């Protein structure tokens, strides 16, 4: 029983879980930013192509 209690109180692996959550959050923000930036650039290039004409 003491081994189970000791295992539940052990916080050694918590750092890895916290780092994984931070990395996931940063990746989500980067993907969202890249998507928005890509759509904005695409719209501007389409607009420029329309202004230049065929």
Give the termini separation.
79 Å
Taking all residues together, what is the mean pLDDT?
86
- Individual helix count: 2
**Uncertain residue segments:** none
- Main sheet: strands, sense, barrel: none
Task: Write the element-wise H/E pattern from the N-terminal end onward.
Answer: HH
In helices, the fraction of residues equals over 70%
| Beta-strand proportion | under 5%
Radius of gyration: 24 Å
Number of domains: 1
> Shape, please?
rod-shaped
Total beta-strand segments:
0
Strand pairing plus helix content: what structural class? Answer: mainly alpha
Short description:
By secondary structure, the protein is mainly α. It is built from two helices and no strands.
Could you describe the 3D structure shown?
The protein is mostly helical and 54 residues long. The chain has one domain. The protein has two helices and no strands. The longest helix has 39 residues. The mean pLDDT is 86.
Labels describing this entry:
54 residues; mainly alpha
What does the secondary structure layout of this molecule look like, with pairings?
Blueprint: H1 2-9, H2 14-52
């Amino acid at each position: 029983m003491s081994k189970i209690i000791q295992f539940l109180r052990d916080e050694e692996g918590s750092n890895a879980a916290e780092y994984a959550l931070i990395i996931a959050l940063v990746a989500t923000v980067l993907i969202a930013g890249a998507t928005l930036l890509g759509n904005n650039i695409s719209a501007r290039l389409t607009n420029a192509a329309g202004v230049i004409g065929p």
